[in-house]
């Protein structure tokens, strides 16, 4: 039991560390340092350890090192899970899925470098890759979060028989993914646009993709507000339909985080997307996603009563 408690703490530590790596990756993108190691991967400018590196090289090289540590930490989580839990245990599955998606995360990062979809690249391929990267990151965070939840004593998730609760939560997750993907593309457009104008360029000679992103950038706040309202309603519906201290607390946390996220988004736009504010905005987006995953895990637990069971119990009470 002590070993499993330590494993749970380790898994939450892996989650926190991956959040830091994600933020550093955003810093690499926001500062245009993605080409700091050239188009070489896993080497940096053809070297294992770059000599006399520029600032951009150090930023990118540090991101590669921290990403490598994140991969090793998930490997350790997987090995530990297989040693501490029996065959078929849900924690093993969570750790295995975490391993799969951190590998795809690394491959997507390598692809950005090898295909030179970094720095000031303003192609449609880069925009699509940013959205795909965000999707994979969200799935990775969900897998690690659920592994930590299950290792901490949480029950497996059951979707069958969960009725409207499952529908509300799944729709909310899809909505948050869409908000995140559009946000990733908008953030790319902001980075390229402000880097271009601050360097003395004019809006007339912007790349067509950047111009298109800038022209629709106000759509993202509208989408975020719309889906945010849906998620908040879903959270409170869930806390009512699945009463319990943990579910209610998570609904409160999710609501508070999303409110702060909307304020941060407004400040980010008002300040013309400074790097530090982009990082705050991204951190809050990840925190909202994790809170939503935990809420779903709590509400959709295997022992949760199905609508049919709840109705039968209510009818029995009336007859009694």
Describe the structure in your own words.
With 320 residues, this protein is mostly helical. Helix content is 76%, strand content 0%. It has ten helices and no strands. It has helices spanning 2-30, 55-84, 90-114, 124-151, 163-198, 208-216, 219-241, 245-270, 275-299, 307-319. The protein is globular, with a radius of gyration of 22 Å. The model is unreliable at 308-320 (pLDDT under 50).
The helix/strand class is mainly alpha
Order of helices and strands: HHHHHHHHHH
List segments where confidence is low: pLDDT < 50 over at least 5 consecutive residues.
Answer: 308-320
Q: Which term fits the overall shape? A: globular
Largest beta-sheet characterization: none
N/C terminus separation:
43 Å
The helix fraction, in percent, is over 70%
- The strand count comes to 0
What features would you highlight for this structure?
320 residues, mainly alpha, 10 helices, globular, disordered C terminus
Topology:
Blueprint: H1 2-30, H2 55-84, H3 90-114, H4 124-151, H5 163-198, H6 208-216, H7 219-241, H8 245-270, H9 275-299, H10 307-319
Helix pairs in contact: 1-2, 1-4, 1-9, 2-3, 3-4, 4-5, 4-9, 5-6, 5-7, 5-9, 7-8, 8-9
Summarize the structure.
By secondary structure, the chain is mainly α.
């Amino acid at each position: 039991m002590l070993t499993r408690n330590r494993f749970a703490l380790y898994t939450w530590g892996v989650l926190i560390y991956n959040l830091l790596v994600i933020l550093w990756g955003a810093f690499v993108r926001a500062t245009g340092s993605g080409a700091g190691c050239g188009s070489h991967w896993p080497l940096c400018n053809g070297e294992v350890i770059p000599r006399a590196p520029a600032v951009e090289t150090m930023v990118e090289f540090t991101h590669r090192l921290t990403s490598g540590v994140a991969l090793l930490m998930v490997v350790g989580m997987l090995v530990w899970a297989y040693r501490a839990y029996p065959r078929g245990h849900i924690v093993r599955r969570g750790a295995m899925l975490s391993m799969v998606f951190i590998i795809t995360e690394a491959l997507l990062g390598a692809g950005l470098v090898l295909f030179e979809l970094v720095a000031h690249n303003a192609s449609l391929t880069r925009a699509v890759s940013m959205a795909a990267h965000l999707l994979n990151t969200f799935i990775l965070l969900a897998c690690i979060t659920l592994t930590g939840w299950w290792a901490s004593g949480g029950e497996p998730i059951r979707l069958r028989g969960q009725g409207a609760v499952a529908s509300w939560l799944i729709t909310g997750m899809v909505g948050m993914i869409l908000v995140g993907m559009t946000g990733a593309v908008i953030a790319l457009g902001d980075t390229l646009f402000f880097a271009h104008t601050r360097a003395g360029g004019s809006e007339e000679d912007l790349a067509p993709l950047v111009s298109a992103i800038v022209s629709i950038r106000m759509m993202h706040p509208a989408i975020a507000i719309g889906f945010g309202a849906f998620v908040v309603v879903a959270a409170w519906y869930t806390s009512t339909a699945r009463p319990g201290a943990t579910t209610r607390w998570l609904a409160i946390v999710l609501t508070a985080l999303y409110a702060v996220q909307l304020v941060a988004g407004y400040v980010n736009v008002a300040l013309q997307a400074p790097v530090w504010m982009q990082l705050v905005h991204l951190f809050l987006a990840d925190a909202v996603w994790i809170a939503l995953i935990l809420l779903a895990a709590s509400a959709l637990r295997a022992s949760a009563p199905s609508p049919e069971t709840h109705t039968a119990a209510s009818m029995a009470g009336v007859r009694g």
